[in-house]
Design brief:
Length: 182
């Protein structure tokens, strides 16, 4: 597959790639950022390196921009170049009356403005409320909270490899992705 035809994987950070907490867990943390203990999701480096050979990669988190930039620069393998690393300032803040809180939504029209085709963008996130307007482009993973036996990235990699040549990612039913390959 030609580089310019690769699907763009937009990866969430907190509870998708890492777990950050002010309360130290009973396991060793990977590193600290300010008052946070940071735990990498198991298989993270392997996942990023493997996916980079099949997809373009980006990170978009609803967390503070500086936090996102520094955490991503710490966890990324040297060989990986992200298309972009975005934080909260690229999100759209919207009131969710069902949850009775403000949600920082990730709207794909902002990614589209960077020249990416909406049919070739996949968002990987643990929070459906942040990507609800982009459900045709989203794959929801279970939240990572430090479990060192977690194998979500291994399962996700197998699924993503099965859909890497799809021309219109929106045409694939992604609900229940853990139980299927295309």
């Amino acid at each position: 597959m030609e580089t310019e035809n690769k699907i763009l994987l937009v990866l969430d950070l907190d509870e998708t790639l890492i777990h950050a907490t002010e309360q130290k867990l009973e396991i060793d943390f990977d590193f600290q950022y300010a008052n946070y203990f940071i735990y990498r999701r198991p298989h993270l480096e392997w996942f990023l390196e493997t996916m980079s050979s099949h997809f373009k990669l980006a990170v978009w988190s609803s967390a503070d921009d500086q936090y996102v930039e520094e955490i991503v620069n710490t966890i990324k393998p040297e060989s990986i170049e992200f298309e972009f690393i975005w934080g909260r300032t690229r999100c759209t803040t919207k009131r969710d009356y069902t949850l009775d809180e403000y949600v920082h939504e990730k709207r794909l029209k902002k990614v589209k403005k960077k020249g990416f085709s909406i049919e070739q963008i996949l968002m990987i996130d643990d929070s459906p409320e942040k990507t609800k307007d982009n459900y045709g482009n989203a794959i929801y993973v279970s939240a990572f909270e430090g479990d060192q036996n977690d194998s979500e990235l291994k399962s996700l990699a197998a699924y993503l490899e099965s859909i890497k040549n799809t021309l219109n990612i929106r045409s694939i039913e992604k609900r229940g992705w853990k139980n299927k390959t295309v």
